[in-house]
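Recall the central idea of this unit: under ordinary conditions, the amino acid sequence of a chain determines the structure it adopts. In this exercise we apply that idea directly, starting from the sequence alone.
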Amino acid sequence: MAPHKAPDASRRSDRSRRAIYDAALALVGENGYRRTTIEGIAARAGVGKQTIYRWWPSKAAVLMEAFLDLAARAAEQAAPEGGWEADSRGGGEYGIPDTGDLAADLKSVLRATVDELNDPLMEAPTRALTAEGIVDAKLGAEFIEKLLDPQLALYVTRLRAAQEAGHLRADADPRIALELLIAPLTHRWLLRTLPLTHAYADTIVDYALGGLTPRP
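Accordingly, the structure predicted from this sequence is:
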């Protein structure tokens, strides 16, 4: 008779954690942040409410961790397709590729961002958390600190490299420069003014780098 093998608690915990992530993101997308509850997440995930409270102190903590995990998985998928590039130092970090062609590198990343924002799995929870972060200052600050600022830092790194290579004005403020790239995408996506497309992403880069005034 084969010896009895004890259940792998770590694998069970991983499955439960993944189920909780998926449930939290699905519910916030369907019902919005305020109507999503710990009880609802537990029921959708098929776990006890105390399991969630054992790992997270609040609903906001569950959703933020679930969203960060979703964003990390999206970056992993985008990297092989020419979007975010894996850091050669390892550690699971991603950055904007540096091929020596600033316009091409920025277009590849903005196209990957367009794909993420148009992905139904990303769109609903992103909209819900963005909207709630506007009225809930604490949640908004956490959203910026844990997700937005690290992504913006990648743009700053790439733009500073472009300055050092002479591909960008030395006196340009990288933080303002990156806002010229990201803000139009966010505006069109958030307000649904017009379709969010790769062609639009490419045009943003052309306008940001080339300017709008006539060339001599």
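The beta strands are 85-86, 94-95.
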